[in-house]
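A further point concerns the way the authors explain their paired sequence and structure data. Nothing conveys this as quickly as seeing an actual entry. An entry of this sort, consisting of the sequence and the corresponding backbone structure tokens, reads as follows:
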Amino acid sequence: MGMRPSENPTVVLRHCDEYDPERIRNIVREGLETLGLRPHGRTLVKPNAVLSGPMFATAHTRAEFLEGVLLALGDRDQGQVTELAVGERCAITVPTRYAFRHAGFEPVLERLGVKAYYFEETPQVEIPLSHPNRLRDYIFTPEPVARADFFVNCPKFKAHPWTTVTFSMKNYIGIQDDRHRLIDHDHALSRKVADLQHIVQPEFIAIDGIIAGQGRMLTPIPYPLQLIVLGNNQVAVDSVCCRIVGIDPMEVEHIRFAHEDGFGPSELSRIQLSGDISLQAARERAKDFQVGLVRVEKYFEGEKISAYAGPPPGHGADGYCWGGCPGAIEEAVEVLRLFDQQYQSKMKRLHVVFGSYRGPLDAAYGEKVIFVGDCVQWKGHLGDQLVEIRSLYKDRATKDPHHAQHQDIYKKMLNVAQLVREAQHEPYVRLPGCPVSVGELILLLAELGGVKNPYFSYAEILRFNRAYLEWRASTLAKRVAGEPYQIAGAAHRGEAQPDLG
């Protein structure tokens, strides 16, 4: 498993204006040749499959792109690859099997004889951390990641409401399963993403920027960038991508943190650029690209939902929880818009509060207030009722990844339904969690707002439940067989390996 980044950071910019697997294959193969790379041993490709299907076509790495990458890896193999696999954990509460199926990955993997790893179904390996400024002394990652010999990161070129952009490094949020992914997914998210870099460094990066995703993460607006970005160093690749969309990479926290941790250069003078598209030409293509990072109050201006955000515990970088609940509700609303064309007319007036907010709430009689997250605090009158919301926040030091629990989507549905019932005659409802997931916010907003619930979509419910039952059957079979869920011990090259069978 490659721990340290390349000593010769190189980024290749290639023009590609269509999702033709053979054309992508040739471009990626030439990139591997330029970088002098050949896959070997356990070769694992990690795409971005956060959500998939026709409504989310720009959210994930396209199947045609993944096929081209896999074919190119096969072209460069000289008999040294012992396993070629694709692995990912998609958006929480959604089975990765479902995401792979509706992204079109399944027929590609079957046709090419490539193994699929659904990371929520695999054992998790404990990785010790010792670098300064780390959030924890250890984190967990799926076994296929921990034992990879040649790791390929294959993300989507996208904006992000929590981290401004999601290129190569941010794609690492999918190398944890649900129970570990949500730990530290708060105002420390950028530090968490940087800490994940200490698990493994990719030998090769291939970014799908043919049709990029702007503005958002789950429901991005298509942007025809017509670009494939290849490289051998994540900090270098992400820094070049930042410059393509006109932002300073050192203003993106997780990139700056990874740079400071020694994972690569951000300065163009230390990065070798090649390809058939110049950086300036790529900048011209991306001149209208919209990045993320919109405060929740701004996002809801002019909408039927009003938002009020106070600082999180520890106050974050600028007194705002960029990595937690505020960004989650923005994504939840965009998903609801997709599934209900009458969202704008049907949505009821609601008010959502985050963090330690001390100001007034402009809630009229009959308008429900939602207090979101463990850290929310507020005191004041809602109508004639004096309401005091106290913080339930627990310091991250009290959250032990060894004991993290998965929250099933159907359990979440029941919990949200119960909260709504209990608050039926109250002016407010409190939704606990740190962070509250996008799924929970979709459920609550659909119920209180009177709009369609995507989880109950007739078009998807059978397919979703099929993937859900396959997931549960797989994990049950492994449990019956005695396969451990979590494995303690280092997994870095040169260190003692756990016996994984």
